[in-house]
């Protein structure tokens, strides 16, 4: 708000002057920090409000030169703004209102309708069908419905089903259409919510303790200390004379106020900022209007009645650890404090997953913006579901599940040194060439079939392996999976090659490197990690994949597993130019079910048993066989059944492809248990 003064009253130009022109939208523009696609993009504004519902960001109200009365929605999944077709009691345009999300509905309360005119109406939007409804309000006692106001806080406590309204400002002028005489509040109201639609009544608690002074344009968030009721944390804002930097907590269990005195260096006093909780204990404060000089902290000064030379838009991002009661001197993405791309006030923020989305605001007293940016708050999660897509003589194609918060991925691999053959005793009898050839062929088939089955039990710890960088992949955000074609990896060498700019992004440019091509018939361990501006994730569980030997078939690829009435349906693509004779499918089963075992007590380890052999590149594994499966959770929060599939030609079996079939629920085992006879029949 721009302030003008005389001796007796304060005239304030509204943040959103009312000029009811038709609502126009600009074509989508692309931000350098967030994809927006080709949809509509909202006009520049301030005094608006944002809430997040299931990956959608809902925007209502605010404006710049006119108040907006349309709902706009941004999808964080596809990066598009869209304007839903709404029905029902559509609310008028409003600014500096209260807005909360409750499941799939939103509530809007109060705000400024036009210059000098405030509202205390309450509207509900059912986002599942984009239907508005004006709600009737009642107080448990007379006078318990909040008066018309704007710039108040409206905070959903969540599980308790209560919304807390605090503070704000009203107009007490006898001529509200001409003069704004602010009347500041520090009252508290509770609004009880029903499940579905409708509301309960307003109530006004009798609060104790040290309450905040009357204020507006502050922020409030919800904090739940262990073993205590939910706390509403009120920060900053402004009263009649100055901007504020104090912090208060309202215990909603005892209705008592407490002023907090956090340790650390506090931010400058501010109003028109935004604040969000990014974890159970950390509040992030973004932007706002702050003083240019410590000499001046009052809204009005004889040398600058408008305040334009005293106040300016702030670009800081500060973190308050509520559990430690301390302002942190670190940022979200490292030791240094974070900054917005430019100072702004009147901005709004919403948390979606681990990303703080910030929309619009004012850069200065004249210029509004309409950019949408986000700030990442956490490192990405660990990549999961790493699998072989295709194996060839000198290439391995792998894929893994896409991670929304990743900006890029680092792929590494490590060749597995073959075990040295045992020396034969000197007095052993020499075998004939024919016998030797037959035995080698038989041994080769047996080892190729069983070698992959033994690999799970012989897994080497990841930190004991010498890993080599392969490449950095940019995260495109397209599709549920990310894939990488591995043809070579980098090794440190005495004489290196000239590095490209892309290679310098992940290799130490001060060292010398050479590319090493993949070799036929060698097993390579592969792992991947996700990277964003906050850092690097843990590496995935590694997978071991073998390049095909010349003459032998490659690994089956593009494996698809689905649930049917008969069991698990598997289908795959055959290796290229392999003249496949047959395929073998193996299932990881508990040791007690392994063919040849006596059925003794399980050791807790798994073995692989063959559940299909045939020429078709598809099969069904019965429920009886699936009941024997040893589910794995090493790379996912959900249990997974593990299959391996290998192809055979005239020379023998090639490398196997492993696939993890994620389970929604624990596999049901038939009464009495399944016996080994089912597995034998499959062979």
From TrEMBL:
UniProt record, GO biological process: chromatin remodeling
Region of interest (Disordered), residue spans: 417-465
Keyword Nucleus: yes
Source organism superkingdom: Eukaryota
Any one Gene Ontology cellular component term annotated for this protein: histone methyltransferase complex
Compartment annotation: Nucleus
Domain Fibronectin type-III: 380-537, 553-654
This protein's record includes keyword Nucleus: yes
Keywords, alphabetical: Kelch repeat, Nucleus, Repeat
Broad class of where this protein is predominantly found: nucleus
InterPro entries listed in its UniProt record: FN3_dom, FN3_sf, HCF1/2, Ig-like_fold, Kelch-typ_b-propeller, Kelch_HCF
A GO term, aspect molecular function: transcription coactivator activity
Pfam families in the cross-refs: Kelch_HCF
Protein name per Swiss-Prot or TrEMBL: Host cell factor-like protein
Chain's gene name: BAC001.15
């Amino acid at each position: 708000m721009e302030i003008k003064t005389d001796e007796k009253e304060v005239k304030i130009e509204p943040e959103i002057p009312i000029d009811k022109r038709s609502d126009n939208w600009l074509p989508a523009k692309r931000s350098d920090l967030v994809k927006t696609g080709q949809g509509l993009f909202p006009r520049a504004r301030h005094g608006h409000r944002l809430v997040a519902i299931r990956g959608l960001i809902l925007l209502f109200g605010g404006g710049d030169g006119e108040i907006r009365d349309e709902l706009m929605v941004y999808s964080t999944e596809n990066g598009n703004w869209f304007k839903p077709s709404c029905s029902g009691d559509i609310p008028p345009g409003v600014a500096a209102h209260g807005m909360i999300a409750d499941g799939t509905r939103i509530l809007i309360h109060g705000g400024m309708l036009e210059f000098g005119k405030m509202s205390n109406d309450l509207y509900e939007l059912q986002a599942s069908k984009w239907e508005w409804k004006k709600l009737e309000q009642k107080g448990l006692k007379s006078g318990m419905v909040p008066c018309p106001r704007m710039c108040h806080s409206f905070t959903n406590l969540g599980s308790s089903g209560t919304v807390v309204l605090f503070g704000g400002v009203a107009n007490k002028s006898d001529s509200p259409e001409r003069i704004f005489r602010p009347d500041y509040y520090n009252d508290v109201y509770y609004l009880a919510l029903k499940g579905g639609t409708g509301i309960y009544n307003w109530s006004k608690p009798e609060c104790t303790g040290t309450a905040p002074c009357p204020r507006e344009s502050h922020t409030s968030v919800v904090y739940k200390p262990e073993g205590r009721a939910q706390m509403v944390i009120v920060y900053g804002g402004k009263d009649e004379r100055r901007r504020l930097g104090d912090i208060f907590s309202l215990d909603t269990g005892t209705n008592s106020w407490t002023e907090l005195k956090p340790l650390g260096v506090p931010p400058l006093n501010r109003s028109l900022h935004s604040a969000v909780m990014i974890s159970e204990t950390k509040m992030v404060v973004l932007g706002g209007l702050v003083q240019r000089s410590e000499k001046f902290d009052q809204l009005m000064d004889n040398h600058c009645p408008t305040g334009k030379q005293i106040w300016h838009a702030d670009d800081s991002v500060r973190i308050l650890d509520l559990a430690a009661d301390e302002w942190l001197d670190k940022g979200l993405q490292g030791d240094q404090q974070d900054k917005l791309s430019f100072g702004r006030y009147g901005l709004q923020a919403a948390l979606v997953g681990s990303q703080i989305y910030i929309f619009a605001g004012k850069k200065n007293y004249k210029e509004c913006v309409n950019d949408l940016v986000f700030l990442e708050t956490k490192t990405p999660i660990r990549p999961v579901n790493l699998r072989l897509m295709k194996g060839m003589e000198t290439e391995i194609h792998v894929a893994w599940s896409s991670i929304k918060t990743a900006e890029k991925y680092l792929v590494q691999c490590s060749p597995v040194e073959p075990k040295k053959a045992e020396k034969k005793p000197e007095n052993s009898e020499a075998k004939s060439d024919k016998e030797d050839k037959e035995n080698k062929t038989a041994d080769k088939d047996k080892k190729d079939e069983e070698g992959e089955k033994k690999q799970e039990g012989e897994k080497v710890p990841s930190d004991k392996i010498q890993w080599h960088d392969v490449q950095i992949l940019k995260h495109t955000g397209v599709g549920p999976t990310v894939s990488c074609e591995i043809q070579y990896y980098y090794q440190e060498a005495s004489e290196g090659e000239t590095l490209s700019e892309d290679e310098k992004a992940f290799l130490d440019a001060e060292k010398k490197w050479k590319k090493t091509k993949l070799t036929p018939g060698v097993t390579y361990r592969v792992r991947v990690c996700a990277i964003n501006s906050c850092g690097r994730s843990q590496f995935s569980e590694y997978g071991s994949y073998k390049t095909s030997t010349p003459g032998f078939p490659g690994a089956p690829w593009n494996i698809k597993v689905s649930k049917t009435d008969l069991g698990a349906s598997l289908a795959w693509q055959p290796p290229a130019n392999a003249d496949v004779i047959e395929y073998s499918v193996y299932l990881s089963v508990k040791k007690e079910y392994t063919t040849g075992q006596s059925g003794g007590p399980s050791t807790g380890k798994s073995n692989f048993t063959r559940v299909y052999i045939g020429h078709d590149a598809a099969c069904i594994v019965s429920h009886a066989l699936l009941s024997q499966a040893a589910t794995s959770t090493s790379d996912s929060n959900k249990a997974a059944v593990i299959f391996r599939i290998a192809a055979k030609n005239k020379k023998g079996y090639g490398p196997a492809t492993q696939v993890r079939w994620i389970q929604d629920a624990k596999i049901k085992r038939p009464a009495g248990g399944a016996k080994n006879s089912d597995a034998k029949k499959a062979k």
